[in-house]
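Example 3.2
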Amino acid sequence: MEILIYISILIILLYVLLIGTLSIQWFKLPRYICTETKENDSYTKISILIPFRNEEKNLPLLFQDLESQHYPYTDFEILFIDDESTDNSVQVLQNLKNSSKLSCTILNSIGGKKKAIQKGLNQATGSFIISLDADVRIRPELVHCYNNFYQSTKAKLIAGPVRFTNKQGILSKLFSLEFTSLIASAAAAISLQKPMMLNAANMGFERAVALEFEKEIYQSNQASGDDQFLMEAIERKYGAEQIHFLKSEEAIASTLAPKNLSQFFNQRVRWASKTSSYTSRFSQVVAVLIFLFNLLMVGSLILSIIEHSAVPFLTLYTIKVLIDLPILLSANQFFKQEQNMFYYPLLQFIYPWYIVIVAVWSLFGGYSWKGRKY
């Protein structure tokens, strides 16, 4: 029993150290201001890759955002890659393309999102790639912002900020709050030069570098994870200093929150299932530590019920609430979603259960995504 107490204390201390360090790095990471376009600005030839599957409702909105970009039409192209859609997505895009001045290509792909990205990479003509999900909304400054940031840093991989679109209802707020914690933690880890995750809904990278790792990433047996594996490959060969986070409000991509618990659960299981394939030792250690701390919280609640004392659980709950608060509060201010913090205490109560269940399920169960089962 005594050894379990010591192990528990060690897990708690390591968790506090981890979140404290990430919080400090998030605050140290400066906001990047995308300056106004000037006559003597140089423009990188940019290719925007947008894989899609059954997105006929979302594609017109994203297309509208792309037409509004503050970047010369002659210096960026858009490649929409159809991943075996069964709705009218392709026809909708074709109609939009026919009435637009954008340099736009529609490609067909078979075999999932990774294959779609690979096809887009091989057809792209730009030296720098921006990868977007088909259901995101972006601001008019996004492409210009990526260009300026890339030219100032020469980073081989740039992780962009992503947020869930706010909707009515508690679940949507909780999903958004949890997602923001992931994005902020990822940004902080990148700033620490210990990259552990990023989100493919909004990211940029050098085309030549992605093609360099084409076989390793886009032809592997993993159903997803091209973003994570590209990041790890770049870190191994070129160093973590070649990976940056674009902390700019102008570069935020807004995406739809999961519609319900089932969609949310499948999304998180899909993400968690990639963990065992990570080559980054830091990512693996962080994943294990977060799982153990939350498992400890679940155990403390059970212990509190058995012993008819709320002390074990309330102690850990208070520690988690206090240590997680600074980074999450600041991140929600950055994403202009401060109102979500009202649900913070509830999230901290639910979070341990969800983490433990998702982690276990990802090891032994499957998931479905975009009409496919894995």
